[in-house]
Design brief:
6-stranded mixed β-sheet, 7 helices
């Protein structure tokens, strides 16, 4: 089992492109007097787990903010892999290749989840080690909107997204309590081996370990109401920042 003490190299990758659609400049939106981006940076640094904490951004403005809070921005991300339809694989591959340094593992810590603090990071790392660092880890939480109650339009009619039956009744006519447990991935944390980029041409292993999180830790900010509705219960998870 790989321990923090004898690990080789682990890099924190924090993606912060400037072209967010749902909230303009979402990654630097202020929460408790600091930009969202700052909380991921300080959580990574305070965990004392990483060889380097790297922000991947296409913006000179974001670069200055990231550096102010202690992250490295060794280069800007090209615009052609900073689009709304760009895959994670593109920017992770670009970043790892251009760092010109060999790392064993990488974490993705997205700025849109400021409630994943240094304690959360270390818990996820322990889970990764528990499985001998063989499988990727991804943050998930119980879904509140079950896919068994979702539909898609097909011609004049609708069809269920998730098919299945309970006591000979289709899932969509069954009580929520009898439906299979479904998890929704959040933007909190992802851990993987750097080798998967070359071997699998994606950011994860074929089998993925769930890092099941409390609602507060897994809260993702995508819409302005996600900010307006923040409770004190969630805010207490924020990493304390002193710069």
């Amino acid at each position: 089992m790989v321990s923090i003490k004898n690990r080789k190299k682990i890099v924190a990758l924090i993606p912060a492109r400037s072209g967010s659609v749902r909230i303009k400049n979402k990654n630097i939106l202020k929460i408790q007097n600091h930009p969202l981006l700052a909380y991921s940076i300080r959580s990574a640094i305070n965990s004392k787990l990483f060889s380097r904490v790297i922000v991947s951004t296409d913006s000179k403005k974001y670069k200055k903010i990231a550096q102010h809070y202690g992250a490295e921005v060794p280069f800007l991300r090209p615009k052609n892999i900073s689009l709304s339809n760009s895959s994670d694989f593109e920017w992770v591959k670009y970043t790892l290749e251009n760092l010109k340094e060999n790392f064993d593992f990488f974490f993705i810590l997205r700025p849109t989840n400021p409630f994943r603090n240094s304690k959360t990071i270390l818990r996820a790392w322990k889970l990764f080690q528990k499985h001998n660092c063989k499988f990727s880890v991804r943050g998930v939480g119980l879904t509140k909107n079950h896919p068994a109650k979702m539909w898609y339009k097909s011609g004049k009619f609708i069809k269920p997204v998730l098919k299945g039956k309970y006591k000979n009744q289709p899932f969509y006519n069954s009580q929520f309590t009898v439906l299979p447990t479904i998890f929704l991935q959040n933007a909190s944390i992802e851990i993987s081996q750097c080798s998967v980029i070359r071997k699998n041409k994606t950011i994860t292993t074929k089998k993925i370990i769930p890092f099941i999180m409390k609602d507060e830790e897994g809260h993702d900010i995508n819409y302005i109401n996600d900010v307006k509705n923040l409770s004190n219960k969630k805010l207490k998870y924020l990493e304390k920042i002193e710069v």
